[in-house]
Design goal:
Length: about 130
Amino acid sequence: MPAKILALIPAFNEAARVAPVVEQARTHLPVLVVDDGSTDDTSTVAQAAGAIVVRQEPNQGKGTALQRGFRYALEEGFDAVLTLDADGQHDPAEMPLFIDTFAATFPETAPDLIIGRRRFRQMPWVRR
């Protein structure tokens, strides 16, 4: 049986940027956006883009949003979680590299953690 993997996107006030991230990520995996107490339309925009949305109030920080997403994944029977930033710093087009690495070893020797490295050369200085 193939691995069941969830894309997890913690978000805080990212209504202006979250939709393309969700739309691109959804081509690879189901997507959960944990809205960390945003005061803008992050939840509405993410849901309209096709994400499952969990909202927590008040803003508790990225770490807590990630923990909430990990709990959701466990409760829903996912085998793994792939995290992305809501602001587009992580390119969803790179997701297959992680998915394929995990799937090739699942379930016998699947790694507990796979870490990617961003290439900053093409990223504007203000986004680094």
